[in-house]
Structures are given as C-alpha cells and as structure tokens.
C-alpha cells in the first residue's frame, strides 16, 4: 500500500509532463496540491482529471508566469495570504530552446528556469521555515554536466547562441548551484533542498524542437510517470529527512554533480546576484 502524504505541496508547471505525473501521485497519497501554472483554462481540466483518478479534490490553482517577476511576486503573496503551511515547494516548470527575454529583460531560459523560481523560493522562505520540516525540490538536469564554462552572470540578459542549448545548460547549472547554496544558507532551519535529473522525458519542454527530430527522439525518452520518480523521492522519502544540498539521478539515486556545480564561490555569487536582480519585486 502506498504511504500516505497528507501535507501541502506547491508545484510549478503541474499541469503537464513530469509536473502533472508528480501531482497525480501526491494527490493519490492524500496531499493538498497547489498547481502554480500560467494558464488556468489549460490547468483546470488537468486538475479535474487528477481529482477523478485519485478521489482527491483538494487541488488548487495559482497563476504563475515565471517569465514575469511581478507575476511571481503576486503568486507568492496569494499563497501567503491563505496562511497555510507549505511542506514541499517543487520547482518543476522549465523550458528549453526558447529564444527571447523575460518581461524584465533577462534571457528567457535563465529567467524562467532559475530566476523566477529563485524569487518564488525566497518569497516563501518564512512560510517554509514555519512549516518545517519542509523541502525545496528543484528539477534540474544532467545537462548541467555538459557545460564546460562557469556560469556567466554578466551574460544573463543576452543569448549565448542561436540554438538555445548553452542557455539551457547554464540554467540547469544555476539550478544545482541554487540548491547547494540554499542548503548552506538555510542550514538548521528545518528546510532542506534537493536537485534532480529526471531523465530525458517526452514532455512539453521540447515543444519548440523541430518536429522531425522531436518525433524520432520521443521513441527514446522516458514517460512523465517514469520521470517523476526522482521528484517524488526527493519530496516525500522519509530517509532523506535532514539531508540537504544533494543531487539525484533519474531513479532517485544520489549522484555527484559536475565540478562546476560544486563551486561554492560561484553558488554564493549566483545567490547574491539573484537577490539583487529580484529585490525590486520583494514583498
């Protein structure tokens, strides 16, 4: 019998792919799940289907546009106004190979995959600490291992290439650095942090990839349900209680992050610079 998990969880990008699969399993275990997503009209049908599948209708929508820091600020404020605990913040939403900039002018992939999530986390810091033990789980990627250069913080307002892979790799490196620095800064608070590689998943993150390549690649990808394995372990596994700042593979096994992701100086610099960037949007 699946172990119950009757706690409060907020998942970004919970209406599709790994996020929806994770939300479904957590709902099945009895969690109250907040779906922090861009589009309510697209999210409500997913919530209704999950409620039907699991018998759990304790599912709630929050509007969150990670490419707009004002929206992130509003989402955090809306959740805090509910005066509820938050036991798991699951930073799942992400994009790849999308050109352009966020509303505040940051390179789109970095802005969505790292900076929007960073603001959401620090805005919910007090709630998380009050709810301890609590967890911040970040869906990163093995792609962070494939970048051979340190994070270029002076380039986050411009694209590095025309293809988008370097931007994606850099954003995933930022995810792991963020996880490790959160563990250091919030040590002893009862809030622990985890980063993970879900595997290569057949999900909407690849929606901007040319369809012939995408169609062929899908045959070799894991399903969202398979991809939720590591997210679920990091979110609920009692054996990870008190563990923080670690990186996990697609089967939930602890793995070693890349040497660049272990750079404590880079992690501190990323955190400090991120705080500076989001400071106009703090409540």
From TrEMBL:
Pfam families: adh_short. Signal peptide: none annotated. Keywords: Oxidoreductase. The keyword Nucleotide-binding does not apply. The keyword Magnesium does not apply. GO terms for molecular function: oxidoreductase activity. This is SDR family oxidoreductase.
